[in-house]
Amino acid sequence: MKNDKLQKLRNRVDVLDRQLLELLNQRAEIVKEISEEKSKAGLAGFDSTRERKIIEKLLRFNRGPLEARDIEFIMESLFKVYRSFGRPLSIAYFGQAGTFTHQAALKRFGERDNYISCKTIEHVFREVEKGGADFGVVPIENSNEGVVIHTLDMFVDSDMKVNAEIFLEVHHYLLSKEKSLKDIRKVYSHYQALGQCQGWLDENLPHAETIETPSTTAAIQRAKVEKGAAAIGSEIASKIYGMNILAERIEDFRENITRFLVIGRTCPGKSGNDKTSILFSIKDRVGALHDMLVPFKENRINLTSIESRPTKKKAWEYVFFVDFIGHMEDEPVKRALAKLGKNCVFLRVLGSYPRESRNG
Q1: Using CA atoms, how far apart are residues 18 and 22, in angstroms rounded to an integer?
Q2: Handedness of CA 41, 45, 47, 53 (dihedral sign)
Q3: Is residue 331 in a domain?
Q4: Domain co-membership, 9 together with 77
Q5: Which residue from 259, 291, 277, 356 is spatially nearest to 322, judged by alpha carbons?
Q6: Residues 256, 171 contacting (CB under 8 angstroms)
Q7: Among 34, 67, 106, 261, fewest CB within 10 Å belongs to which?
Q8: What CA–CA distance (Å, rounded) separates 276 from 327?
Q9: CATH number of the structural domain spanning residue 129
Q10: What is d(CA 235, CA 223) in angstroms, rounded to the nearest whole number?
Q11: Are 230 and 188 in contact, with CB atoms under 8 Å apart?
Q12: Model confidence over 284-320: pLDDT tens digits?
């Protein structure tokens, strides 16, 4: 039976699709000109602040039925395509193809850029410092396992700046060349992945030995050549390395999100919805840390994270890493940092950058 109304609606969609295609191509032409101007000026092709401003503006105009996360997904996909009109970026990332850091890098930058696999987090920093990569992607914290200490340690001695953050929902899979759980005697993975799946391992593989590796990909490579071995990794990695999936989504907690940082040699500008990361060292006296936090309270600045690490230069001396809402050019932030700096052994602003939405 012919449905005239349905056909009319489809015809309207067809017209809109053609109009949308024309607008997308018009935007592409303008972006090409912008890329050429950026190249002449020696500017990077990735501008996290500008991209976030565009999304924030569209969210204010949006009246639905598209939701905020829909707008963000669409625009982030467009950014990846349009960014490819300029010089391809070089992105250094921790681990090898198929790791979660690699997935985070792809999520932020897309398929068309050049990716540099790094064996260590230190290697990522060094690649960006020496100009071998435009940007680097490193893990900083997991919602269940806490901070990645190697990344924090690198910021102590590095001048790299935080340009953006990436939130990636993480799901773990048990991968092996074996075909049954009963054949598994060893499980390899990065220490964070092992920690995130410890409950599942205790229940399902209580007699298997767990062995830490530098990355989940390194774990897969070992499990691939060892009889009776398995690795905890991603679904994508199972396809890349030809491994069987013996168990799916074995993480102990349903909400398992890892936050990554994009590092670069310069700081982005204000987007209007920013976060700032700093590190500082305090004098060894009673109440010192409390006094360091007072300027933030006085200026009504919301702290989102605070972590400490030994300085490795003097026993019982620590540096503190703090994330808070706001940009270093905001007046309340300027006042807080000025007062903080007077009481610190040293203070370093790691960067102000757009806050990443967790909707996507």
Answers
A1: 6
A2: positive
A3: yes
A4: yes
A5: 277
A6: yes
A7: 67
A8: 6
A9: 3.40.190.10
A10: 15
A11: yes
A12: 776 777 888 899 999 999 999 998 887 766 655 778 9
Amino acid letter, 57: K
The residue with tokens 């592409």 is 28
Residues, the chain: 360
Give a yes or no: residue 252 inside a domain: no
Residues with a known catalytic role: 258, 260
Is 148 within the bounds of a domain? yes
Q: What is the pTM of this model?
A: 0.80
Note whether 8 and 76 are same-domain residues. Answer: yes
**Number of domains composing the chain:** 4
Cβ atoms within 10 Å, residue 48:
24
Closest CA to 201 of 268, 251, 253: 251
Domain end marker among 52, 83, 114: 83
Is 309 part of any domain? yes
Domain of 226, in residue numbers: 173-247
Query: What are the strands, taking DSSP E only, across the chain?
Result: 90-94, 114-118, 135-142, 146-147, 161-169, 173-176, 186-189, 209-212, 229-233, 244-247, 257-264, 274-282, 303-310, 318-325, 344-354
Q: What is the CATH number of the domain that holds 79?
A: 1.20.59.10
Q: How far is C-alpha 181 from the chain's CA centre?
A: 32
Chain segment 51-103, per-residue pLDDT in tens: 999 999 999 999 989 999 899 999 999 998 888 787 889 999 998 888 889 99
